[in-house]
Amino acid sequence: MHNERSGFLTLMLTVGLAFLYIPMVLLVIYSFNYSKLVPVWGGWSTRWYKVLFESPEVWEAVRLSLQIAFINATFATMLGALAGLAMVRFGKFRGRTLFGGMLVAPLVMPEVITGLSLLIFFISLKELIGWPLERGFTTITIAHITFSLAYVAVIVQARLTGMGVSLEEAAADLGAKPFKVMSSITLPRLAPGLLSGWLLAFCLSLDDLVIASFVTGPGSTTLPILIFSRIRLGLRPDINALATIIIIFVAILVAIAAYIMLRQQRRELIDQQMAARGDV
Amino acid sequence: MSSVKKEKNLSTDLRYYISLSADKLQSKWKTIVIFIPFAWLLLFFLTPFFIVAKISLAELVITSPPFSKMIEWVDGGVITIRLVFDNFIYIFDDPLYARTYLNSVKIALISTFLALLIGYPIAYAIVRSKPVTKQLLLFAIILPFWTSFLLRVYAWMGLLADQGTINNILIYLGVTDTPIRLLYTEFAVYIGIVYTYLPFMILPLYANMEKLDGSLNEAAADLGSGPINTFFKITLPLSMPGIIAGSLLVFIPATGEYVIPDLLGGGNVQMIGRQLYNEFARNIDWPVASAVAIVLLLLLVLPMAVYQHYQAKAAEVK
Hints:
The complex is a heterodimer. Chain A is mainly alpha-helical.
């Protein structure tokens, strides 16, 4: 179902994209505003970037958030890949319905509920076994892994379903052991999905405010917690500068992920065409 | 000769046993593959909910942690189990909570409808685009989802503020002399929810419409049906699964939203997510916060179950 797109649809598309992008563009433009009052234009300037770079609080928050995001993405990708593999390739197993439910629920669960329940869980655990002694880095990371792995599992499931099993079956017919099939067929073909899953988990963790606010402790201020505490009181030009840097950083990450995914798709398309012509 | 045959038999047997143990090994690995993420989710996702349910039945006590123990060892090893329904009675008695719940559902419903109204034509337009444009458009829709949610809400604070961009434009155009109050209103909350959740509406709609059979539309046109009639008789009913999935993906998280009512609604818009956070952070009343969470969860269990049902069905079709 493609070709002819009516005038109305084109209009809606244009308006929709403008709606999505104009606020972001304005946010970026105002970060270069000299004026202390964000919406009052006082000429081009990079003074707020200087203010930002000279703030030790911001650097500390960036460091903490990047560390959490990195560890979260790595663990969430491993757990999410296993979960996706189990859901797509293992057929029926005991507890599959519960497992599938727990994999979908974090995607739609209101963050306040997840946050509150994890906080109370950590506190009860401390009462019970004396761990975790302090809330902060560890508790935030565990909380992030728990919801990120669900997103990774979605990507992995979609990729595994799209891949089909024919190549694996062919390899097994030709005598390859399960581990060989896994390492030389399944994993390399799954790699782009794993990479985009990793990047998504990384971005989700960098982005999370609500759950981190619940499970953090004194002294552990992540970047979103810092931003939120500042913008609650109104607009701040240094936050516009910070936002611009974050937007550019994330856009580069996503562009890399998109490029890798597209390249893989194209390569597989070429392979299919060659196979169809009998070149292989 | 016979020894050769014997050897051959032996090797087949051996191979048989090796393959058996390989199967066993494989099933062992399968168990491990399932067990690790399963155990993680049981421990860090499911268990916490049971604890919240437990705490919601506890009393507020001024200790650390601020809730009473439900199971206590009394002298002589007798266990007393105390269930306190006071928190739930408190929630149902105080009209503030009922109003806040209803208001959350109302705001989420209206926002979902608005997102559908805007998202549907966009998804349809993408489906009707050329393959290369399609990829680019999809990318353009997904990109904002990856950038910070908090910053997207903040961007609207700059647009809606009394001295913000929209008011500046209106004053410049002479529409109004004094700024119109836009920020810290319910209207701002609608914009915030529609803006941040729009990709969640568009993507399931797109995924659904992409699979629709274009020949049905052609057949309808051949039989003399106009484009509007065809849309309402064929396209709209067939895209119902996409509409339901997209609407639930917006409605469920929007109901419990905390950041948007806090930043764009200020103190003027009461939503349950914000109430829960305040109960926990400001009043430090964890049993009531837990009870609020449980009631919110019960409210959302049905939509969540419907969503999962559709997800499972979509997976089967594949």
